[in-house]
Prior knowledge:
Oligomer: homodimer
Low-confidence stretches of chain A: none
Number of strands of chain A: 11
Radius of gyration of chain A: 19 Å
Distance between the termini of chain A: 18 Å
Order of helices and strands of chain A: EHEHHEHEHHHHEEEHEHEHHHHEE
Strand order of the largest sheet of chain A: 3-2-4-7-1-8-11-10-9
Helix content of chain A: 25-40%
Largest sheet of chain A: 9 strands, mixed
Amino acid sequence: MKDVAVIGLGLIKWGELWEKSLRSMFVEAALKAIEDAEVDHVDSMYVGCMSSGLFVNQEHLGPLMADYLGICPAPATRVESACASGGVAFRQGLIDVASGMSEIVLVGGVEKMTDVDGGGATFALATAADQEYEVYNGVTFPGLYAMMARAHMHRYGTTREQLAQVSVKNHENGSKNPYAQYQMRVTVEQVINSTMVADPLTILDCSPITDGAAAVILCPVPLAKKISKKPIVRVTGTGHATDTIAIHQRKDITHLAAAEASARQAYRMAEVGPDDINFAEVHDCFTIAEILAIEALGFVERGKGGVATVNGETAIGGRIPINTSGGLKSKGHPVGATGVAQICEVVGQLRGESGERQVEGARRGMAQNMGGTCASSVVHILEVM
Amino acid sequence: MKDVAVIGLGLIKWGELWEKSLRSMFVEAALKAIEDAEVDHVDSMYVGCMSSGLFVNQEHLGPLMADYLGICPAPATRVESACASGGVAFRQGLIDVASGMSEIVLVGGVEKMTDVDGGGATFALATAADQEYEVYNGVTFPGLYAMMARAHMHRYGTTREQLAQVSVKNHENGSKNPYAQYQMRVTVEQVINSTMVADPLTILDCSPITDGAAAVILCPVPLAKKISKKPIVRVTGTGHATDTIAIHQRKDITHLAAAEASARQAYRMAEVGPDDINFAEVHDCFTIAEILAIEALGFVERGKGGVATVNGETAIGGRIPINTSGGLKSKGHPVGATGVAQICEVVGQLRGESGERQVEGARRGMAQNMGGTCASSVVHILEVM
Lengths: 385, 385
C-alpha cells in the first residue's frame, strides 16, 4: 500500500445555517480544502453523509456534489455509517489513494439537519439504531446513552459531576474554535441544572443538531512532498470495526468493543500504543460517550474516564488532550461531517495552526468516530513528518 | 494494485417478498456467496443500498448486516449511489482487495422496496434526481426517461416498436432465470398496449419495484487459485464516472456521457475495446435506458440501439447478447442489489453455469450499472482465466 498524506483542509462555521443548503455547504468546504491543498483537480471524491434521504429528501450525493463542485466526470461515492459516515468516508479515500487507483482524492462530509419538522431529526438519527428491536420499542439515542451512563455509574462509581466535566472541558476548548457552533463556556452547575433529556443526561450533556460540512484532500506522500508548502501529515494507522447494532445483545454496555477493536488495528498498523498519542479527537455525542471512548482507546484505565476528566488529564495542557476542537458537544455534530472535521482538527494541530487551543509539541494525533451506540467505529492515527 | 478475482456468488429469488426483511434477505444472499466461495471468514464487507432510510427507516447497514451475518468486528461499509449502489459497492470491495487492506471481501447489495404506502417507492426513488430542480417541479423517473426516449425518437427515428423489443428480449431471457421476479414472456403488442406510465413508456417498458439481495466474494487472484475449485474469474477493468444530476444541464439527453466515460476507463484498464466483449449486463431501468447504454458503451453506433435490438444483435445467440439475466426489466430491480446481481450473472456466464441462457464461448463480459438518469455509472469487465 502507498503512504498517504493529508494536504488540504476545509471547514465552514457550523450552526443552524438557514441560508445554506446541503450542496452549498459541501461545495464551500470542498473549495476551501482544494484551495488549502493548492491542487488544480481531484481524481476522485468520497462524500460522508448519514441520512440526507430523511433529512432533505436527497440521495445520490456523489454525482450531486461532483456536479456542483464542477468535477464531473470524476468518480464520486457516498459512504454511510450513521454518525461515523465521515470517518468511514475518509478511510475509503485513504484506501483509494493507497491502492494506486486514484492520486488526488477529496473526502467531504456533510449533513443538513435543521430543515425538518419537530422530532424529525430525532427520528432520522434513530435509524442508526436497530429499527426492529430498539426503535420500535420507543428508545432514541439519548435514552440508549443514558442507559450506558447509568451502567457505568453503577459499575465504576462514575458521578454526575464527572459527566458534566466533559461538557465543561469541551465548551472551554470550543470557545477557542471560530468554526464551533456553541462557543460559550459552561459550568458543572449549568450542565447539571439544564433541561433533562434522558436521566442522567441533560441537554448540556448532549451534542446539538447542526448543519455543517468539512473536507480534506489526500494524496500519496511523495506527491505531497512535491506540491505542499505546509508540514506533511501522514496517515500512519487506520482501523474500522463493527459491533452488534442493538445494545441489548452486548456482553457489557459499559465498554465500546468496536472502538477498542478499531484502535487496536490502527495502533498495530502505526506501530504505536496509546501512550504514544499526543492528543485525540473522540466521538463525544454525549458526555458519557467521551468517557467510554477514552477508556476503549486505552488512554485511561477502564472505569477511570470520569476521574481522569475531573483531574484535568484530558484538558489542553493535560496528559492527553481530548477534543481540542470542542468536540461534538461544543463544535456541533452534523453527523456525516463530524468524522472529516475531526481529521481537520488533528491535521491542524499537527501543522501547528490551532492558535489558542494549540497542543504544545503535537507530533502524533488520533481521530475516533463512531456510529450509533458504537456499532461502528473508525480510528485514524496521523503524524507530522 | 493486486489482481482480484470473484470466487463466490449468492442470489435469492426476487419479488414482493412479504415474509422477508431487509436484513434477512441480505444475510441469505451473503451466506450463499460464502458457501459458493467455500471460505470460512470474510475480512471486510461492503453493502450497496440506495435508500433504506426512506424505504424501511433503517440506516447504518454496515454493522447491522455484519451483526446479523455474524462477522463482527469485521469492518462493514454501506455505499450509496442511487440505483448504482451495488455496482459502486463492488468497486469499493475491489479497491479494498487491490490495495492489500483486506484479503477476502464480501460485497452485498440489498433493497426492500415494497414495505411502503402507495407512492412511497416513487418518492424514495425520486431522491436519486435533483430534489431542488427536478423533483420539486413534479418530475419522477418514468417522466425523465420518457423525455430521453422522445428526444432519441426525434433525433434518430427510434420507434415505439424498437423500445418494446427491448422488453420482449429481456423477458425472453428472464423466463430462463429461476431468480427473476417476472418470468413470463411478453409480445411487442402487449408492451405497447399495457398501461401508460409516461408517454411513450408503458408499464412493460419500466423495471418493477422489487425486494431482493445479491452478494459476491472477492479475493486476490493467487488466493483464488489456491482455494477455488471453480473457473477463476478475474476483474480486469473498472470504471466509475459522474454527470450532472439534472438532465436539463446536459448538452445532449440522448447520450449517457457518464456511461461512456466509465466504460472508457474500464476498457483502458482491461486493454480491450467494445468488440472484445462477448456479452454484457446493462442498466435497463426503462427500455430506452438499454438502448442508450449499448450506444454509450460502444456496442452499437449512436442512434442504432433500437435497430440493433430488433435485428436480434443483442439477443442470446446474437452478436453481443445484452441482459442475459433478464435485466432489470424481467429479473426485477431492487435498486441497491442490482449492480451486485449483474456481477453474479456475468461471473455465472463466464463459469458456464447459466443453463438455458448460457452464452456460447463466453470468455469476457461486462456489467454496467447506473444511478438516476446516469448521473453516475460504474462499469466492470470480467474475464475467465
